[in-house]
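Following up on my earlier message about zinc ion. Here are the inputs again, as you asked, copied directly from the submission form:
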Amino acid sequence: MFIVAKILRLKCQVFLPLFLIFGGVAVSQDSPVSEPLDGREGRELLLKNFRPQAQLKVAEHLRNKAAFPVVDVHTHFFYKLRSSQQALEDYVAVMDRNRIAVSVSLDGSLNGRLEEHAKFLWGRYKDRFLIFANVDWLGDGTRDNPATWACHRAGFAERTARQLAEAVDSGVSGLKIFKRFGLEYKNPDGSLIKVDDPRFDPIWDACGKLGIPVIIHTADPAAFFEPVDETNERWEELSRHPDWSFHGPNYPSRMELLEARNRVIGKHPNTNFIGAHVANHPEDLDVVSRWLRKYPNLYIETASRISELGRQPFTARKFLMQYSDRIMFGTDGPWPEARLHINWRFFETADESFAYSEKVPPPQGMWRIHGLKLPDDVLQQLYFENACRVIPGVKARLMKYRQSQAQEVQP
Ligand SMILES: [Zn+2]
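Thanks, got it. Here's what our run produced:
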């Protein structure tokens, strides 16, 4: 078998350069169809074809709803559902089944979309959704000419602060900053706008005065800033999405970005900040712990990071227990319902070695996760108590949700 594999490998090396591609099928002059790199019968295996099925047999405790009402503080109802009423109805049914009381949509851009998005979500379901606004950095400027962007005009931050005050009057609960701020938006001279650019201080100050939190997504997973080579732990994913790599001279280092964000948090102690995706540093929870101790106005949320927390279950459990008053539940959804079930299983059971996503291959690293089995009081803080304290509008909705649940169980 080994010899066959060796010979085939040699043959491939010799004939591959002669392959011509016809409609996606490679043919050589030697044989009519090339051998697929599927790992079968001694052939090599392409990483993208690797679909290992675990043979491990351990106890499973599947969960199809959360143990307590949940506030999902990180969702994208504009980007993921666009304005499909049917998709919204379907997702509200998913929320009902899973015990999600409230979802926070982070897609309320101040470029005019906010009103439309509010109509979409609040038309029928005002009690189940909250909206965060987004800064309109470009305004009526042209995308490829930063000199024309609204954010470079005098008085931009003050105007944005006034827009935010109006948005809060109309029911908005917070501000969401996307990762493009730091990684994409440019100054007129072509350099990237710095996350701690003092021109935007009035925006952060305004949020504090208005009593709304800023959920801020800065940088991305550590692997996205590393060379895309055989040592990169997310090579498989980056090979599918090369544009997700921020490695190289065109980008600041990941730590530069995160430290600039932290300086903003430190400079505005009266504004609450929610560091999206475990403050985007779940690969090193010691460092996130240090940040939480240093900045009492910093909170974090878990969206799209159970893959990271779940590969270090002992460390993650200790971390979540220790900072249980600073952590909120988020998903980055709406996702398929199966993903929600995995979330409940992750936080609520001690199951071992299960997939963190319903997708094959796993979308954020080729590993499995282990459950944290958090105690009930910590689960309640994570699922709703902290959100109640930090995000305006949550508490009233949660009370209504509880009342509606109580009525349902009455005969
Ligand atoms: Zn997101």
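One observation from looking it over: Residues 74, 76, 332 surround zinc ion (CB under 6 Å). Hope that helps, and feel free to reply on this thread.
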